[in-house]
């Protein structure tokens, strides 16, 4: 039984002794071929040459920010190499250069370093095939006897949850550190 793929699926293509990862753009039913889009090419291949792509590595938002920033002339591949060096135990250069070149704040640089220390080297190598950014959990702030915090101009508190605004932990603490004790996780998201 062959794997059923659909348009939009990430797949691994084994064609001409070359393995690439791409996304299915078009599938033709009459000759079982599909068009694949990768980072730098578009090509047609037989469906028999496809296998499911490996799962994407999940990274925190600060790591995504670090990888995508090119303020100091580094490419995403240079950044991935820096993470692998940190994983190997040398974090001084990443911390100093990221802060000095205003790529990250010192706290953000330490978060990136902690991620790289804790990550498996294989996961860091898989970043080249793509990654997913972890979504920060969202919370409502429900103050006792007052209600939920809203983002309305005419009233800032409401008894109705539909008026409440979902915020991240860092945003809640930025408004007022004391609000964090009243944070309630957003359900169903």
From TrEMBL:
Q: Which domain of life is it from?
A: Bacteria
Q: Any idea what this protein is called?
A: DUF1642 domain-containing protein
Which species?
A: Listeria booriae
